[in-house]
Amino acid sequence: MKTTEVDVFIADIHDHDCDEMVEQLGRDCMERLARITHPRRREQFILGRSLLRHALLHKHGAVAEGWILDAASGKPCLVGVGAPEISLSHSRELVACAIAPVAVGLDVEYCRERDFVALAEQICGPEEFHHFLSLPMSERSDGFYRIWTLKEAIFKLYGRPMPLAFHASGLRSRYFWPGVDFLAALVARTDCTLCLKLHSPSSVRLK
Ligand SMILES: CC(C)(COP(=O)(O)OP(=O)(O)OC[C@H]1O[C@@H](n2cnc3c(N)ncnc32)[C@H](O)[C@@H]1OP(=O)(O)O)[C@@H](O)C(=O)NCCC(=O)NCCS
Question: Which atom of ligand 1 is nearest to the CA of 156?
Answer without folding.
Answer: 25
